[in-house]
Amino acid sequence: MRSFASDNNSGVHPLVMEALNRANQDHAVGYGDDPWTEEAVRKIKEVFAADCEPLFVFNGTGSNAVALQLATRPYHLILCAETAHVYVDECGAPARMTGCQIRPIATSDGKLTPELVRPHLKNFGEQHHSQPGAIYISQCTELGTVYTPEELKALTDLAHQHGMYVHMDGARLANACVALDLGFKELTVDCGIDILSFGGTKNGLMLGESVVIFNPELKKEALYVRKQSAQLASKHRYLSCQFTAYLTDELWKKNALHANAMAQKLHEGLKALPGIRFTQKMESNQLFLIMPRPAIDKLMQSYFFYFWNEAENEIRFVTSFDTTEEDIRSLLQAVREAL
């Protein structure tokens, strides 16, 4: 089965699997006191910043929950786009685990801007109201769009002026980096991001993420928050060793470049077909489009993908590091027949 529903549906890159097999050769001390974790920490510090603190966790929801707990207190308000993963797709886990109110902000493209955020920066010091404490953004966004460094700096400058932190959900950070031809540091540390959920499962890893803390103010309680959030793995090396493979010889970049290139091929093929209208710019490895419902129903007999807005016949296609050109040709042919 070849899926265009999500890059979560792709397999594990062979080099990552090799790293897992190497880590499985002998015994090792648990909970991160092992050479594989030490090496992965060094790798992350090399690509981000020498003074950052990476904490490996099980999954994306856990990563976001840990990061936001570090950046907030229960009386805080977390601002995010109305399409944000922490608001739509995590079953309320970040709200429950932080105790914070999450305030969704309507956007046309999934991206927050200072103009959209400013109206919500109010009631500071007023004890009857939740205090604005953090801004959550996704890079890439849930709509496949990409923040530029200038857009990120504008948001972090605004947040820091008001004593707030900015948390970036980087589940698809690699796809954003290759879309802009920039490195990890240039889209995070250099833009003033305080804390990052650094993901790889959408780009060749088996499981796990890393909460990467850049702002030293957020480091003090990090180990305890991770443990209390049930995100500290005993056999830690199986999470961390994957990041060493991911960051060696820019495997992350090769994988993301391929996924984005396959999305571009699919986009070029689809836009030439009648009855198809794209609802968002194609900037990464996600495509959002509308096609006639009978065609969608017929296509679903052969392919797995998601509705984004079923009432509008809007669907989403996502390409992966292991999507092939034959996959693209086959899907395009199936769309032609369905139309």
User: Class by helix and strand content?
Assistant: alpha/beta
CA radius of gyration: 20 Å
CATH class of the largest domain: Alpha Beta
Secondary-structure element string: HHEHEHHEHEHEHEEHHHEEHEEH
- The biggest beta sheet, please? 7 strands, mixed
| CATH fold node name of the largest domain | Aspartate Aminotransferase, domain 2
Looking at this structure, what is the CATH superfamily of the largest domain? Type I PLP-dependent aspartate aminotransferase-like (Major domain)
Share of helix among residues? 25-40%
Query: In CATH terms, what is the architecture of the largest domain?
Result: 3-Layer(aba) Sandwich
Strand order of the largest sheet: 1-7-6-5-4-2-3
Count of DSSP-assigned helices? 13
* Shape designation: globular
Mean pLDDT, all residues? 97
Q: How would the blueprint of this fold be written?
A:
Elements: H1 14-23, H2 35-47, E1 53-57, H3 60-71, E2 76-81, H4 85-88, H5 93-98, E3 101-105, H6 114-117, E4 131-138, H7 149-161, E5 165-170, H8 173-180, E6 195-199, E7 209-213, H9 222-228, H10 237-247, H11 251-271, E8 277-278, E9 286-290, H12 293-299, E10 306-309, E11 314-318, H13 325-338
Parallel strand pairs: 2-3, 2-4, 4-5, 5-6
Antiparallel strand pairs: 1-7, 6-7, 8-9, 9-11, 10-11
Helix pairs in contact: 1-10, 2-10, 8-11, 11-13, 12-13
